[in-house]
Amino acid sequence: MKSIISDLHLKFAEKTWNDTFHLVRRCMEKPRDESKPCEALVRSLERLQEVFSVSSIKTMKSRLEMIAKQQGMGFHVTDATCYLTADLFYLEVVLLPGGGVEEVKVAPHGGSPVPSEGLLQLLRLKHFADFSAKLAGLFSQYNIPGDNEVKLKLFTSLQCLGKDLQQILLLPRLPNDCDAQMDVINYGRIGCVIAGKEDCPLTIQFYTSPSDVRKTPDSQIVEVDAVVQTAQVTVGVSNTTHRLQMAPLIPQPPQVDPQGCPVFLPLNEVPNETLPACFLLLLQPAIPVTVPRVNRLSQITELVIPDVDLQWAPLPKLLMRGSLGANSSGETLDEQDTIFTVSRPGVTHSYILPGDAWEAPDQIGAVMDRIPFTHPAQVPEILKLLRRQCATNTLLSSCITSQHVSSGSVGDLHFEILPQTETSFSVTFQQPNTDALAVLLVTICDSLQIKCSLFGAGQNDRSVDEYISTVMKRSMSIPVTLMTLYTKLAEITSAPLPSDHLAATETETDLSAPPSAAVTDANGALTTLSPRAAVPEDNFAVSASSCIVPVAKSEILSEINTSPAVNPYPFPGVGVLPHWMNSNGHISEMI
Fold first, then answer.
1. What is the pTM of this model?
2. d(Cα 197, Cα 211) in Å, to the nearest integer?
3. Is the peptide bond preceding residue 115 cis, with omega within 30 degrees of 0?
4. Before 496, cis peptide (omega within 30)?
5. What pLDDT digit, counting tens, does each position of 136-180 carry?
6. In sequence order, which ranges of 71-179 are alpha helices (DSSP H)?
7. What angle do CA 389, 393, 399 make, to 5 degrees?
8. CA–CA separation, 75 vs 36, rounded Å?
9. Is 38 helix (H, G, I), strand (E, B) or coil?
């Protein structure tokens, strides 16, 4: 065997890559048993292609042929033009004599070829791996299930749906954000619709959070761009048949109802087909969604959301799977509770999410990557619900996603996050310069409105709630918001009130405006806040030694739109900061 290998080395030592390449091709073209494909030769050819210099029209054709076969597409050549073909589209590549590329066109079924600048540049730069990936996405876009007749009908229906979604985007509305792009994405009826071109699918950008400023382990300040949540619009097979549009459903000119929603023609008044398929929103990235919202999605779409592949778990655990990594540190206190340390400028926060509390039925969820629907009117409602879930996920992830801290470290400030309802949670913490506890109730009314209410701080000015709500909405970060709140409370509690001010407060005759303090939020916006800003003391009296948080239930329950008979802390045995109490029941540093 060694002799044979040596002879082969000598025989081909002076052969060029071009000779070797063509030898492999000749071996592949020889008749063979189709049940035994020459996989080794295919792999060899692919490896040769990767290192082979594309310097002639012949080698470029060979490279395109290999890419087409990798994607399961057909390949045809006429003179200097290559055709990569699929059932519902084809790619036309016009080559130059030296192996260069003059033009790349994409032609959908029944349509004229349209130039694709993106694909053209990838081939000109000889970025074949990126070109292959782009082609794979294009192939999946047109990979509609069914026979040829069904494929053509579904393709037509998808195009009509796309026209309706673009019409919804163009309907007039009042802006909600000074940033035009963020306004369309976060507050538009349907987000930012990126029209499906021949070389890319119809995509909707429907949620993004503010960019985050973080500190790296080497003390460098970096700005982390927020992820833009998108949904690709396509079609998929269904176990049952559904009536799908074969023409646009929005009349011309478009109209809106008194609620500002677009008016659609009845489905039976336009051409339609009953097909074994439905439309799909492919979520990128996938979104953890709680059970109540999954059920609400089923009500909106009138379709059962299949849960065969869904793995149910408490919402924080789902967020941990996507957030924990090199940028975060989580310490398990027991089998269920986890502490996360989050570094802010000059201080470190510790956040505990009690496992028992987050195992409530309303807080169980699953990661969803697709949502079926059958009508364009369902899309705005679906996206509204997903935006609300994204806002919840963003806030909780701001505690889970932290800079790396060595194991065993504890924070300077400690916070406990408990769920209250499907749409609200509370943050309990020790007030500065005192042993008393305070609770910040966060209610996510929708992605447009986040309401914060402070209890137990012994203050009497509700403007602090409005200010903290503004900070929360702008930063979409619990650590940033609590740092602002804690700093303001520290200023208030450390400054003794003058006797004349106390007397004026008792008689309620002091109407003079107090000096205001400037606070800068995460986005750099400067806001003034009265140093007396807080909430009524009798609403939430806290005794740290007893580890009980007595509260006027009707007050806090009205904040979360819940019946007064419902306990705002319904999870027995969790307590308030149970892991942070010493033997005397007082709050102490964690060991």
1. 0.71
2. 29
3. no
4. no
5. 888 877 778 788 888 889 989 999 999 999 999 999 888 877 788
6. 117-124, 128-141, 148-170
7. 160
8. 22
9. coil
